[in-house]
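Case study: Importin subunit alpha.
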Amino acid sequence: MPTLDAPEERLRKFKYRGKDASARRQQRIAVSLELRKAKKDEQALKRRNITDVSLDPSDQQTKAVSLTLQEIISGVNASDPELCFQATQAARKMLSREKNPPLKLIVDAGLIPRLVEFLKSSLHPRLQFEAAWALTNIASEASELTRAVVDGGAIQPLVELLSSPHMTVCEQAVWALGNIAGDGPEFRDSVISSDAIPHLLTLVSSSIPVPFLRNIAWTLSNLCRNKNPYPSDHAVRQLLPALFYLLGHPDREVLSDTCWALSYLTDGCDARIGQVVDTGVLPRLVELMSSSELNVLTPSLRTVGNIVTGTDHQTQLALDAGLLGVLPQLLTHPRSSIHKEAAWALSNVAAGPRQHIQQLIACGALPPLVAVLKNGEFKVQKEAVWTVANFTTGGSVDQLIQLVQAGVLEPLINLLTIPDNKMVIIILDVLFFILQAAEKISQKESMCLLIEGLCGLDRIEALQLHENHQVALTALNIIERHFSEEEETVTALPARDQDHKFLKDLTNTYHCCTTPKLGPRP
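Here is what the predicted structure looks like once written out:
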């Protein structure tokens, strides 16, 4: 009598089977948190500019002026623009140190209001540039420092600098706004409400230098980031055409940040996924999943993985774009983090209707899936177990038999010894469903012998004494229902009726059309 009650939080990660909308939204957070632990593959929230460049090439020939903090404070507050420039440049160089820049010291010295004023000095673009650079680096660190920049009134002048005729000034303003937006949803929305998006979008063109375009793509991605709350629908509608355009750019950094932006926008309900899918990005995203560059592959896979958590129609669009031609190959990728995300995406395909499961079989996904179950890292094996669990709860009898023929039983039985009670329960339930399928075609005796020959019966019998009550009960149900000599007389556990009810509940569809306020995804 499989129940799958114990790991119900995990069930809510997949599609919309047996879930109310609220629980579905909340549990997606848990998956996201788990999948984002490898931060070196993740996009940077903030960036500090430590490159020594200048608006005016002649400055490169000028001997650097080294000032004390007190001299900087005096110079910044002077009335002579040249003294202000020298002091601001000296402050910026302090803030650009690779190690231990005195960010808080500069803030505590009260320099931010003057730096913000310098942003408005259109007659002195070198001063604007140095001030924007200094504010960029202050906003690159802790939230309290970013708040000091925002509270100092920097956002609106920075937005206005996006129209500066001086490209380096404009680019530095883009960078500063990206750091502010990357701090969290509050400041992201402050940047958006200051009308930054239209100004940023006017900068996106084929003629712009690639390094500048990288900064723009990264800043746009930070405007898509965070979901407590999500960015407004209006902002998303503004951003999507530019993201679609950038997805066709050949530069890998531009592609990486664009894919991360789309991954943030698809990390939500079906309506949000639909906004992205409707732009026609899926074929390009699937193409990028074959990239040899990890910083492009990871976010494109994440985005498509998010999309297949949506409706069956949205998943079918991903399949039509060639998803299953790529996913099986990713199960053999050199990086285990890719294995895990690929298995997670595959499990959501398996959570769909039988035609999706049949496509999964037809594309040759079962052999690499079984290989992952046998030899993968444990975190990947867990995702693969969930793929099999979704397969068995939604597949036809014939599809389950093909799963068995692919060799899934041996690695599943071997995993019954793992110290993870939830996974053990799921594996036991999978075995129950497989035995039930065999019974429907009068092959249960052969299936029981096959399981017994793989030491499965011994392990299931041992689990009847497990300290976890749910594990013990699930094992007992399998023994009494399928391996007991008196199984025909067992009536206390109406397994099939409950099984049918479970399958019916599990295939209920709930469509999420709200814009919930969800927890942050680190």
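For the exam, be able to explain this: Confidence is low (pLDDT under 50) at residues 1-41, 487-522.
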